[in-house]
Specification:
6 strands, alpha+beta
């Protein structure tokens, strides 16, 4: 069962501050201390997440699958799946990534896409697609979702709940731009390698 927006906000308040009181202090906030302690606990699940990535590599042999779990940067384990593409150096092109995130704060996950606009090796722009997955990436996204559900028992967070604005500061996101998506998964969904 998917937690409500109110339940998820209550959880997020434990780990993210409602003001900037501690920004210029050297000591961590109570929320920072709880967040670090939770990551210390969740890091024990690293081998389990590694097993999920291996399963994805077997299930999606034509794709490249990478771990994207920067310690403490995101409140989630992350998997990035790169469909096959041929880089063309002489003209602009779009390269897609399917991103799956399993929150460490609540038993929820999300799968979305990022489209990078390249000219040669230079990325000109990145755009996040949190809504419907493009049809050509749907099988990959479904595979990622099924593995997260099967291996961790998490439920998909509906987009309308994920986009609920919250009055919290999450890394570089601040109200009124901050949403539950930022608090539960990543504050920079476009910023992936």
């Amino acid at each position: 069962m998917t937690p409500s927006a109110e339940e998820l906000l209550a959880v997020a308040r434990l780990y993210w501050g409602a003001d900037l009181t501690y920004v210029f202090r050297q000591e961590p906030s109570p929320e920072d201390l709880r967040y670090q302690a939770l990551w210390d606990e969740k890091n024990k699940e690293g081998p389990r997440w590694g097993a999920l990535l291996k399963e994805l590599r077997v299930a999606l042999p034509e794709c490249k699958v990478w771990d994207y779990t920067p310690p403490l940067a995101n409140p989630s384990f992350g998997a990035l799946v790169y469909p096959p593409y041929e880089r063309v150096m002489s003209r602009p092109q779009y390269i897609w990534t399917v991103a799956g995130y399993l929150s460490i704060l609540a038993p929820v996950y999300t799968v979305h896409c990022v489209r990078h606009h390249y000219l040669g090796k230079r990325c000109l722009d990145s755009k996040v697609f949190l809504g419907p997955i493009p049809l050509e990436l749907q099988d990959i996204a479904d595979t990622v979702a099924r593995r997260i559900e099967a291996d961790f028992g998490a439920t998909a967070l509906p987009l309308d709940i994920a986009q609920t604005p919250i009055p919290l500061y999450v890394n570089f996101m601040k109200p009124p731009e901050t949403t539950l998506f930022h608090a539960l998964f990543t504050s920079e969904p476009w910023n992936i390698p």
